[in-house]
Design a protein that fits this description.
76% helix, 2 domains, mainly alpha
Length: 452
């Protein structure tokens, strides 16, 4: 098992949090591109007559592109650092997004989306490791939670802007100019503002730090499997929530975009809260299991409500969209802690590859399923994925950076319990019994004296 990944560097606390903000903005711009096509589905249906299954396939093209290069970007990250990877990746994504706006056929449009996904994959691994490298374990969950708001905030920005651009532009593909501008700005910001976290040279590292974390342990593989399974509900809401609101509940494009935006902003806030929660409980993965169980319950309720045409289905869909995005930051943080500094890039690349495979395969399958059988069945089937994920979460182990802290907290709780049972406080002073406490409260006038 590797040691604690990367110790906190020499930057001041304000500079560290500035690094979190930069990572957030750069990654959010990439996710505007990755998920932006989902918000073009109404325009693609109106302008080009694109069926829902085919539109779902187009929305998957960035994810297919990411699958092709995630491990390569992770390998490059382990060798050249975060600044180069984020700058080059953002610049290439901007070029691909602009190329997509010039496409005059569905095939060309899909090709540009695939190439852009290959470039956007750089932000997934590099942005997460950049943040984890500047914070100690007891602050890392909160910091990574803030950084992981990039995905829902990027989706929120895309939902608010891209459908409106496509509705008023000359073609459906023109909406991709928004991620092109954002990614170009992200490339400049990466080149100017990013400082790579300190890291040992390979020659100075111990044999334990260089050891392959996948040998002799299933923890990382279980985390990969859990995160891939929990990607499906998130993909469902990102891809089909907008068109579901428009088609089933007669929302306007702007109103539906606002609902999606609100749900993603709430999900971003939730990621920060669960990140802080993981710091407090000393575990990244126990909250993940709770999120999986919650996703099962909300998706089942949504399927029933939509089948019965109840208006409560809309707030339930918002709840599903919030719960679906809460776990990802915890899993990414756990990966960096378990994998160590010399394997975290490749491990994050492998993690995101599995996620993107699910994110790429789910939309066309779900689109055909919705066309043939309706939304309620699709919601119910999606609930099976977090149901499978819940028992796979490895909650019984902790990474090295948190083991000592957890043992210390458990020892302190045990001491308090023993002291309470023995009648003494932890500092050794006698603990007053029930009668003494009532007499003290009676003297203070908080308990009535017994009748004479």
């Amino acid at each position: 098992m590797p040691t604690d990944p990367i110790g906190p560097g020499t930057l001041s606390m304000s500079r560290r949090w500035a690094t979190v903000v930069v990572s957030l903005l750069v990654t959010a711009s990439a996710f505007v591109f990755i998920n932006g096509v989902a918000f073009l589905i109404p325009a693609l249906e109106d302008d080009l007559g694109t069926p829902l299954g085919e539109a779902g396939l187009l929305s998957s093209m960035p994810s297919f592109g990411m699958v092709a290069t995630l491990i390569l970007w992770g390998w490059l990250l382990d060798r050249v650092g975060e600044r180069v990877v984020l700058t080059v990746g953002s610049a290439l994504t901007a070029g691909a997004a602009y190329g997509a706006t010039t496409a005059h056929s569905v095939v060309a449009f899909g090709a540009w989306l695939f190439v852009g996904g290959m470039a956007a994959a750089s932000c997934n691994s590099a942005g997460g490791r950049l943040v984890s490298g500047w914070f100690p374990p007891e602050q890392r969950g909160l910091a990574m939670g803030v950084r992981q708001t990039a995905q829902p905030l990027g989706i929120a920005m895309g939902a608010l802007v891209i459908p409106v651009l496509a509705e008023h532009a000359r073609s459906a593909t023109s909406g991709m100019i928004f991620p092109a501008v954002l990614c170009a700005g992200a490339a400049v910001l990466s080149a100017v503002a990013i400082n790579d976290p300190p890291r040992k040279e390979r020659a100075d590292a111990t044999e334990q730090e260089l050891a392959n974390p996948y040998r002799g342990s299933m923890v990382l593989r279980r985390i990969h499997a859990v995160s891939a399974l929990l990607t499906v509900p998130q993909t469902l809401t990102v891809t089909f929530m907008l068109i579901w609101l428009i088609a089933n509940y007669r929302c306007s494009i702007f109103a539906a975009g606002c609902v999606v935006t609100v749900s993603q902003v709430l999900g971003a806030v939730g990621r920060i809260l669960v990140g802080r929660w993981s710091d407090r409980v000393g575990s990244r993965l126990r909250p993940v299991r709770m999120m999986a169980v919650t996703a099962v319950v909300t998706l089942t309720a949504l399927a029933i409500a939509d089948y019965l045409h109840l208006l409560v289905a809309v707030p339930l869909m918002v709840a599903v969209a919030i719960v679906a995005v809460l776990d990802n930051g915890l899993e990414s943080t756990a990966i960096t802690e378990y994998a160590g500094p010399f394997w975290s890039g490749r491990s994050l690349g492998l993690q995101n590859t599995y996620q993107r495979l699910m994110a790429a395969g789910a939309p066309p399958v779900l689109g055909d399923l919705i066309t043939g059988s309706g939304y309620p069945l699709a919601f119910a089937i999606c609930g099976l994925f977090p149901l499978l994920a819940a028992p796979l979460v490895p909650t019984d182990t902790l990474p090295p950076g948190l083991e000592t802290r957890a043992r210390t907290q458990s020892f302190r709780r045990l001491r308090r319990w023993i002291a309470f049972q023995s009648g003494d406080w932890p500092d050794g002073t006698p603990r007053p019994g029930p009668l003494a406490r009532r007499q003290r409260l009676r003297r203070r006038g908080k308990v009535a004296a017994p009748p004479t």
